[in-house]
């Protein structure tokens, strides 16, 4: 069964593309068939996060304009998952009709993720309409959650379900909203809380999802957990060595007096 999930947010810069790229990496490493689509045609950067060469000939824009068949827009990432990039040269593009094109891919993939534009607009509407369910990404800051609430209301008005919320860039600071507060504001369950980590930014600057750089740091492990929640499957059990590496990677906070 193929599940199509739109990953949206109220605000930009909260980590949608980062989360989408790393879910694809984590599941692909485990042998799942995953396709990620850059549904942010007004500000595409999924290809940059994933190191897709700018020379990739066919984009989502060509597909939407009915100038190319969706199969020809698919880029094969070396790790195994597939990517449909959007054009960097055409920022006025529309996304309507995506649903019709995606219907040709049902059954091929376990999961199709649409990396959406932020906010509530026609571009986001198209991504939501093309999906089976919607996942919201927010940071634990109040303005981000407030805007996520607008996005959740928008999704529900379109008759779609908010399957869950991913809280990203958690720093553990006092002012941050707690997961249960976020759940009650958004009326949706938190699928996971991803910590802020310098390695995430470092990996993006090289066009590699952090999961492929280090699958054992906390953000990678949390994203793997979220990925299996989306698939509604239990993650495979970790080996003793994997558990040990994760334990060794856990930051130990020593309070000196
Ligand atoms: N967990 C994280 N830890 C550190 N930096 C992060 C994390 N998630 C995202 N970022 C950084 O935040 C910025 C915005 O992320 P991005 O995924 O592009 O957001 P969006 O797609 O929602 O606009 C990127 O520069 C990325 O490096
Ligand atoms: Mg993005």
What does this structure look like?
- The protein has about 260 residues and is α/β, with parallel strands linked by helices.
- The protein has a single domain (about 5-250), classed as Rossmann fold, CATH 3.40.50.300.
- About 40% of the residues lie in helices and about 15% in strands.
- Strands 3-4-2-5-1-6-7-8 form an eight-stranded mixed β-sheet, with helices on both faces.
- Strand 7 (about 160-170), helix 7 and strand 8 form a beta-alpha-beta unit.
- Helix 1 (about 15-30) packs across helix 10 (about 220-230).
- The chain is globular.
- The termini are far apart.
- It binds adenosine-5'-diphosphate and magnesium ion.
- Adenosine-5'-diphosphate binds near residues 9, 14, 200 and 204.
- Magnesium ion binds near residues 16, 17, 45 and 115.
Any chance you could write out the topology, listing elements then pairs?
Blueprint: E1 3-8, H1 16-29, E2 34-39, H2 46-50, H3 60-64, E3 75-76, E4 82-84, H4 98-102, E5 111-116, H5 122-129, E6 133-138, H6 142-157, E7 162-170, H7 179-186, E8 190-195, H8 198-205, H9 210-213, H10 218-231, H11 240-249
Parallel strand pairs: 1-5, 1-6, 2-4, 2-5, 6-7, 7-8
Antiparallel strand pairs: 3-4
The protein binds adenosine-5'-diphosphate and magnesium ion.
Radius of gyration over all CA atoms, rounded: 18 Å
Overall strand count: 8
Helical percentage: 25-40%
For this structure, the CATH topology is Rossmann fold
Main sheet record: 8 strands, mixed
CATH superfamily: P-loop containing nucleotide triphosphate hydrolases
Number of helices: 11
Distance between the first and last residues' Cα:
56 Å
Please give the oligomerization state of what you see. single chain
Secondary-structure class? alpha/beta
């Amino acid at each position: 069964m193929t599940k199509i999930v739109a990953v949206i947010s109220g605000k930009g810069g909260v980590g949608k593309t980062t989360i989408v790229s790393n879910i694809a990496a984590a599941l692909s490493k485990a042998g799942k068939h995953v396709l990620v689509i850059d549904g942010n045609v007004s500000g595409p950067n999924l290809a940059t996060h994933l190191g897709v060469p700018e020379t990739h000939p066919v984009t989502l824009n060509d597909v939407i304009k009915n100038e190319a068949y969706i199969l020809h827009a698919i880029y094969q990432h070396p790790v195994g998952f597939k990517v449909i990039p959007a054009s960097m040269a055409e920022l006025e593009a529309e996304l309507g009709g995506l649903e019709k094109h995606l219907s040709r891919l049902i059954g091929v993939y376990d999961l199709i993720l649409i990396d959406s534009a932020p906010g509530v607009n026609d571009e986001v509407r198209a991504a939501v309409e093309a999906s089976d369910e919607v996942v919201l990404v927010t940071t634990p800051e109040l303005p981000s959650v407030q805007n996520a609430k607008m996005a959740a209301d928008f999704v529900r008005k379109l008759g779609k379900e908010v399957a869950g919320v991913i809280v990203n860039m958690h720093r553990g600071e006092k002012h941050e909203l707690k997961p249960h507060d976020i759940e009650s504001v958004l009326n949706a369950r938190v699928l996971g809380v991803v910590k802020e980590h310098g390695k995430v930014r470092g990996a993006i600057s090289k066009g590699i999802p952090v999961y492929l750089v280090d699958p054992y740091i906390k953000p990678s492990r949390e994203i793997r957990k979220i990925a299996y929640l989306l698939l509604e499957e239990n993650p495979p059990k970790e080996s003793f060595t994997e558990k040990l590496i994760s334990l060794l990677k856990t930051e130990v906070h020593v309070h000196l007096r």
